[in-house]
């Protein structure tokens, strides 16, 4: 048995806090009866409706996926391009990606059917760190990258301070490998930040999300998260 607001949040309808508002407003029915009591508990056998639409009480599932380049971080694409859920055809639950990775960015992507978990990981106030490794054009020098640690504004967007590490420099090809750690998730953020300091990105990979890493996964492979790994996000 789970609290009604948690069931609504896990179905991906809205956050748990907003679900409480829906209940108080009389927008939620259980087995055909409007319920306004926040402490109400329901089982998988109960029929829950929000604004007249039944929700599915699937068991919550959580996956860590190594997204290859050239794949869309979505459940469908109107241009018929490959999407991340094409790799999960044997998973019966209706999962979706948490946040996104750009089409040509590879690396760690999480997928779930738990709306509350997704909200937790993507809400800016939680500042969950994401670690990227980028191959950039140019010779990376500390004095050039230092502005990233103070935060910067580029193309009208303001970015919070980031941490960097220069992993390698190739003077022959005039390229460098730079690791960047951020806690935001704005569109093209890593590419824009590095471009702002004169180091345009040629290749980008996300290697870590919070305490999770890719481990031994290869592009296109995934694994289920352990309960302890999921709970660590809620308890941090």
Automatic annotation (TrEMBL):
Q: Tell me if RNA-binding is a UniProt keyword of this record.
A: yes
Gene3D superfamilies reported in the protein's UniProt record: Alpha-L RNA-binding motif, Pseudouridine synthase I, catalytic domain, N-terminal subdomain, RNA-binding S4 domain
The EC designation for this entry is 5.4.99.-
Highest taxon, organism lineage: Bacteria
An annotated Gene Ontology molecular function = isomerase activity
Q: Name one Pfam family in it.
A: PseudoU_synth_2
Give the keywords, sorted. Answer: Isomerase, RNA-binding
| RNA-binding S4 domain segment(s) | 2-59
Keyword RNA-binding part of the UniProt annotation: yes
Q: Give the family from UniProt.
A: Belongs to the pseudouridine synthase RsuA family.
Q: What is this protein called?
A: Pseudouridine synthase
Question: Which organism's genome codes for this protein?
Answer: Enterococcus camelliae
